[in-house]
Amino acid sequence: MSRPALNLAVELDGDGAHPAAWRRAAHSPDQLLTPRRVAQVAAVAENAGFTLITLDDGVLPPGAAPNPVGRIGAVERAAFVAASTSSIGIAPVVPLTYAEPFHVSSQLASLDHVSAGRAGWVVTEEDQPEAARAWGRPLVEGAEARARESRDGVEVARALWDSWEDDAVIRSVATSRYLDRERLHYIDFTGETYAVKGPAIVPRPPQGQAVVLGRPDQVPAAQLDVGLVGGHDLTSVTAAAAAAGTARVFAEVEVALDTPDATAAARVADLERHAPWPDRGRLRHIGSAEQLVALLGELSRHVDGVRLHPLVLDEDLAVLSRLVLPALSERRLVARPLPGTSLRTTLGLARPANRFAAGSLPEDAR
Predict the structure, then answer these.
(1) What's the distance, CA 6 to chain centroid?
(2) What does each C-alpha distance from 189 to 151, 156, 195, 201, 214 come to in angstroms?
(3) What residues contact residue 257 under an 8 Å CB cut-off, 6+ apart?
(4) Radius of gyration of the chain from Cα atoms?
(5) CA 243, CA 216: separation in Å to the nearest integer?
(6) Is the CA virtual torsion 281, 287, 290, 291 positive or negative?
(7) What are 162-199's pLDDT values in tens digits?
(8) Using omega within 30 degrees of 0 as the cis cutoff, is the peptide bond preceding 4 cis?
(9) 95: part of which helix (H) or strand (E)?
């Protein structure tokens, strides 16, 4: 399948990547969690031509006073956005450290149905002890244990998506048959800390499997469709991309852009008076739109996409829409996703065969 040289994703949680981004937002803090705000930002990203939006999430508040600390669940926001968009992919962040994989798989399958095949999933971890208390679960302590929960959770979710074959739903009113029970399957998963029988309670997603994104150092590359890689410079990003081992690789890039009212450096300095911009191990661009276009052009030689984390959404997203994406389009480095096209198709990923379907089983298991 043909695909553009570079797919662009953008993170739309909160007011931006900086903890104090709300201080430069174009709306009052009480408008952050309103439906109008959520739909408006998603519409800007879709109209600009982004491939994918991601929505960060976690059981703990996203910040500390005096910054806003409220957040609506990413899956709920994604479902709302799906109903008001037609072409852009939508990938909520859902950590698996404490969440029940059965419920996660059902939510994401439902999102893929609602969005007509545009759903993705960013797999992350809950690494704060307070998260265990919030969930009422025993603490999952240590990187190895958290990686185990992510690995097992993704395996369960993927198996549950396959537990309904594509033609399991019959809907025959004349015969009063609505499901073919022979095409529903137990997954019989047994891990180190839990077991899941199945099958799912939601039919197989339109994409077969929602697109799974994550860090290859937290989730095995074989379980990911898109690896998210970081690095403080191009050399580090290039090395991480080459070692990712996933079908597609996206670089993580934080951006602060010059605006008509202030330079990027001045905007960052203004916010730094209130709180530091945390170092999350990502490439960071602070400068003009033209310089960002050049950087993305260089990255296009090494990665399949870039996930952008704007400093302040209300300021940087406008510059990205007006100057950056049009310039990339003129250089034929990106292409706008088409309505009616699945996220997998846009990314050039094949629709996976169902592991339980007769034609997908090895001969000795048929």
Answers:
(1) 16
(2) 12, 7, 5, 16, 22
(3) 264, 285, 287, 288, 289, 292, 310, 311, 315, 316, 319, 320, 324
(4) 21
(5) 9
(6) negative
(7) 999 999 998 888 888 889 999 999 999 999 999 999 99
(8) no
(9) strand 89-95
